[in-house]
TrEMBL record:
Residues 79-90 have a biased composition (Basic and acidic residues). InterPro entries: SyrA (IPR024239). Residues 91-101 have a biased composition (Polar residues). This is Exopolysaccharide repressor protein. Signal peptide: none annotated. Residues 79-107 are annotated as: Disordered. The chain crosses the membrane at residues 7-24, 30-55.
Length: 107
């Protein structure tokens, strides 16, 4: 969930909570206190979900590293010297294009 969507949803839930508590209890103070408590709980939930997503992506990355190392070893075994020369030329051309682009931008 994007931050802007989270902020909109948070505002909607908090306003709904405040209005509901005020109409039920007819107490402005109780509405403010419960709204602040609800805000804290929602923010803790969002933070926990972000931590969970970070943890899940790191676990998926670790699982993919083993397969990635195996794939690279296979590529290196069958790689010829012509491929290395072509790759170096391609990198040189890209670097020259970037340098040319920068020099065209400068007065």
């Amino acid at each position: 969930m994007r931050l802007i969507n989270f902020c909109r949803l948070l505002g909607l839930v908090l306003c709904g909570n405040a209005v509901t508590v005020y109409f039920v209890s007819h107490s402005f103070r109780l509405a403010v206190v419960t709204t602040l408590g609800c805000s804290l709980l929602l923010q803790l939930g969002y933070f926990a979900s972000v931590l969970f997503l970070i943890w899940r992506s790191s676990c998926a990355g670790k699982a993919g590293q083993g397969a990635g190392l195996f794939d690279r070893s296979q590529e290196v075994r069958y790689q010829s010297r012509d491929d290395d020369a072509h790759r170096n030329e391609t990198q040189d051309v890209q670097q020259r294009n970037q340098t040319l682009g920068i020099s065209l931008l400068l007065p």
